Amino acid sequence: MREIISDIFSYQFLSYGLIVGLCVSLCASILGVILVLKRYSMIGDGLSHISFGALALASVLGFAPLKVAIPLVALASILLLRFGGKIIKGDSLIAIISSSSLAVGILLISYFGSGTDMNSYLIGSLYAVEKNDVILSVVLSMAVMTIFILMYNRIFSVTFDEEFSRATGMKVNFYNTVIAILVSVTVVIGMRLMGALLISALIVFPAISSMRIFKSFFSVTVSSVIISAFCFLTGFCLSIIFDSVPAGSSVTLVNLFVFIVFSVIGAIRK
């Protein structure tokens, strides 16, 4: 363990990966609770595929990837959260848009080529995290935490009973839009480390693991944050120990293990 800590502080890219990963994990765990309770747990996976398509388009056109991906994914997130159930029932619309976006991204890269290593966006890489990613992730994570704390009561109401909240005069569409934007930004930033194929694990696993044992919104949220941080740190260390294992896969497998443990504990308690 001492050698791992020494390596993290010795190599800049490892320090960058640790900071970005923790920031994204904390934000994803909070937003994951909201999405799971609103029955939109698949939206994280869908947005990651949309983000990959947007990043591929930006790379082919020669634009800065994040400047293109964040607004496009935010728009897609708003449309999915606000109008998804009205256009096509269930998660079908998410599946259609996400698979199509991933296919378009792969087609663009295959046909036109890319000056960017898109594999790092697809499967994630510790080596791909840069200083700008660190600054952006810290700023955005602070913004997500601040917004969540300030709007806690309203987000709680919108999450559990949207129709009642609308009947009381609450601006439900506004708060859904805020949630959508926060989720999209978190997904785009986290893709660099976790990859488009695995970023949804940071959103879904901590929330559903917490719900195996805890029942109140507050306790589930706190537990989800703790689980997310623990799983990321453990997976991050395992990725360093086994150098050939991407951080995204190791973090996801640790999350899976914790989910199984919490499920067993929850079953025993019942």
What's the helix and strand layout?
Layout: H1 2-10, H2 12-37, H3 43-61, H4 65-87, H5 92-112, H6 119-123, H7 131-150, H8 152-160, H9 162-167, H10 172-194, H11 199-210, H12 217-241, H13 247-269
Helix content: over 70%
Tell me the total number of β-strands.
Answer: 0
Tally of DSSP helical segments? 13
Strand content: under 5%
Largest sheet: none
Structural class: mainly alpha
Q: Which runs of at least 5 residues are low in confidence (pLDDT < 50)?
A: none
**Which series of helices and strands comes N to C?**
HHHHHHHHHHHHH
Mean pLDDT, as a whole number?
A: 78
Distance between the termini: 37 Å
Q: Which word captures the global form?
A: globular
Cα gyration radius (Å): 18 Å
Descriptive report:
The structure is a single chain. By secondary structure, the protein is mainly alpha-helical. 82% of the residues lie in helices and 0% in strands. It has helices at residues 2-10, 12-37, 43-61, 65-87, 92-112, 119-123, 131-150, 152-160, 162-167, 172-194, 199-210, 217-241, 247-269. Helix 1 (2-10) packs across helix 2 (12-37), helix 2 packs antiparallel against helix 10 (172-194) and helix 11 (199-210) packs across helix 12. It is globular, with a radius of gyration of 18 Å.
Give a summary of the structure in a few sentences:
With 270 residues, the protein is an all-alpha fold. It contains 13 helices and no strands.
Please name the defining characteristics of this protein:
270 residues; mainly alpha; 13 helices; 82% helix
